[in-house]
Amino acid sequence: MKSQELVKVWDLPLRIFHWLLVAGFVVAYLTEDNLLTIHVWAGYLVFGLLVFRLIWGFIGNDYARFSNFLCSPAQSIAYIKDLIALNAQRFLGHNPAGAAMIMLLLVSLLLTSITGFAVYGADQGAGPLAGIITSSNEDLWEETHEFFANFTLFLVLVHIVGVIIESVIHHENLAKAMWNGLKKPEEK
Questions:
Q1: Is 41 among the domain residues?
Q2: DSSP secondary structure string, 102-165?
Q3: Residue 174, domain member (yes or no)
Q4: What is the mean pLDDT of each run of 10 residues along the chain (188 residues)?
């Protein structure tokens, strides 16, 4: 398919956000306690990206705006049922399952970041929560931080499986679309 037949869906800021988020989360996840400075900076990157995405969800292009893709849990569940039946409608932007996944990932990453700040404050006396969080609850914060990091990893894996399934069902490389921003136009 020629590029002039494609539609620009994902704008450059959203694509940069997506791939930097992937890199930041992977680096943070893999470094853990072994390389604390790198882990902390990757965590700051993830948090900064989340702040950007929140803002971009209101001022970004049509496909990036929350108002254009958020839907009810019932719509997301109905879409997943259609997907399992291999009868899912194609969306040019985020589909209802993708919308739910975005929100789950954003919330889980935010909780991972905040609990990471708490651990850093309790353990190292550093970061934005230093002096607010005491070392008496450090173990609780550490366990909560690890839970959300692992839950986020689980969500990422589900997200990747969903992207693969969608790509196969709709004969469209969604990973490539998130790289170059282009998708097939809606069929009429």
A1: yes
A2: HHHHHHHHHHHHHHHHHHHHHHHS-STTBTTB-GGGHHHHHHHHHHHHHHHHHHHHHHHHHHHH
A3: yes
A4: 76 97 98 91 98 97 94 95 91 94 97 96 89 86 97 98 94 94 85
Q: Quick check: pTM over 0.70? A: yes
Nearest alpha carbon to residue 1 among 186, 164, 183: 183
DSSP 6: S
140: Cα separation from own chain's centroid: 25
The answer as to whether 121 is a domain residue is: no
Domain that holds residue 176: 3-100+153-183
CB crowding 74-104: b at 16 or more within 10 Å, else e: eebeebbebbeeeebeebebbbbbbbbbbeb
Task: Give me the pLDDT at residue 4, please.
Answer: 59
Q: Are the C-beta atoms of 130 and 113 separated by less than 8 Å?
A: no
